[in-house]
Amino acid sequence: MKFSVKNEIRSDDVSTIEHAMKSVDADAKVNVDIDAHTVSVDSWLMPEEFLVAFDDENLDVIIVEG
Q: First and final CA of the chain: distance in angstroms?
């Protein structure tokens, strides 16, 4: 699944985003693309389940790939 982040992502945000995604699914594989403003998550969970974690980090995202 892929999320488009409307906020600016800085390099020091990457570990915070990865931790937030892993708080939803500890086994998730997370890839943050700073230049493209996207976060890809490889997980068996539904994309909607990760939206709360993004919101907790004050990140405005939309699901671009389910």
A: 5
Q: What is the pLDDT of residues 9-63, one digit of tens each?
A: 999 999 999 999 999 999 999 999 999 999 999 999 999 999 999 999 999 999 9
The domains of the chain are located at: 2-65
Q: Model pTM?
A: 0.94
- Rounded Cα gap, residues 19 and 16, in angstroms: 5
Q: Topology of 2-65 in CATH?
A: Alpha-Beta Plaits (3.30.70)
Alpha helices in the chain (DSSP H): 14-24, 51-56
